[in-house]
Amino acid sequence: MLNRSNIFLKTDNFSVERKKQIDTLKIFNANVSEVQEDVEYNIEFISGGKTLALNVKLSPEFPLEKPVLQVVPTVVHNWVTESGLVTSAPGLLNFTRYSDLGRVVHAIIREFELRPPQFLSEEQSTSSTAHQNSISRDGGQSVGGPPLSPNNFSYSTTPPSSYWDYAHPQGSNATQSNSAPVQSTIFPELNSMSIDELKRLYSNIDRIDEFLESTQPVRDLDRTKDDLITKIEEVSKDNLSKEPVLDKLREEILERQDVFSNLKSQFEVLNAEYQKLADRFSPESICESLQAAVIKSDEKSEAVAEMFLEGEMDVDAFLVAYENSRTISHCRKTKEEKLSHQLSELKRASY
């Protein structure tokens, strides 16, 4: 069980490393299109005004194995074989599982952008013409045999010294004598370097990083970054100094919140009592109470009259009781009728 768990753990780590490598490919390069997920990717770029594509294929053992890179269409370059495979790029030669696939591919594309290579079809046409001219000058005999393809370095990854002048005419003495050297305005430090120094610098990513760190724009960026870090620290300290005040205000808010809760509870109790009294003493409720009181007074008057008729009450007592009962009944009835009339008028007026 332990060995099986270790195998699963290694597989997970391997998948994570593979995904990180593919992420760097998308981070450091533009126009990355996915041909097959996790296996094949295509990157289009412009070189010398022509569109090229770099095809990246990843084997199942990647990143333990190197990626397979192929330029389409096939070009003439000392890094590229006749079939278009990129095999001699410095970053690819030294590729390990700890390399960045995106940086390696970006360096290859950058090489083709800075020094546009010639298409293989164009090179074959040029070589064929030169070979025919050579035969015609020598009476039909070829002096040097068939022309050597600049990609045909089967025994060494280093091309002949004459090939650099052929593939990169801007570095040849003939071209330099006819045109002024290109001067860099962004990185003036490059102007004082020789061709060999520039080649060594370009072939080593670590040297490029050291060179960039020593340039004035990068130093200015570092200085700006340090200033921002200092300001952020100052703002953070200022925020921390305000923490006691904020804590005190928070406590006051909590206390006031408790007071508010108590007042809210009291308000709800009083509001319920108010609603009860408002319903009880509303005009409609008073009118209904008066109607009930009138009926009660009439019933009391009738009871007094029955007692008198049955002889249970003398004349004087009957007159006093009956008169009081009828007076109360008429007063209540008058108030009820008047209030009902007022309510009807209010309803008619849409109150």
From TrEMBL:
It comes from the Eukaryota. One of its GO terms (cellular component) is late endosome membrane. The keyword Protein transport applies. Residues 218-280 form a coiled coil. It is a peripheral membrane protein. It holds the Pfam family Mod_r. Residues 120-155 are annotated as: Disordered. Residues 121-136 have a biased composition (Polar residues). Keywords: Coiled coil, Endosome, Protein transport, Transport. Residues 264-351 form the VPS37 C-terminal domain. It is found in: Late endosome membrane. GO terms for biological process: protein targeting to membrane; protein targeting to vacuole; ubiquitin-dependent protein catabolic process via the multivesicular body sorting pathway. Component of the ESCRT-I complex, a regulator of vesicular trafficking process. Required for the sorting of endocytic ubiquitinated cargos into multivesicular bodies. May be involved in cell growth and differentiation. Belongs to the VPS37 family. This is VPS37 C-terminal domain-containing protein.
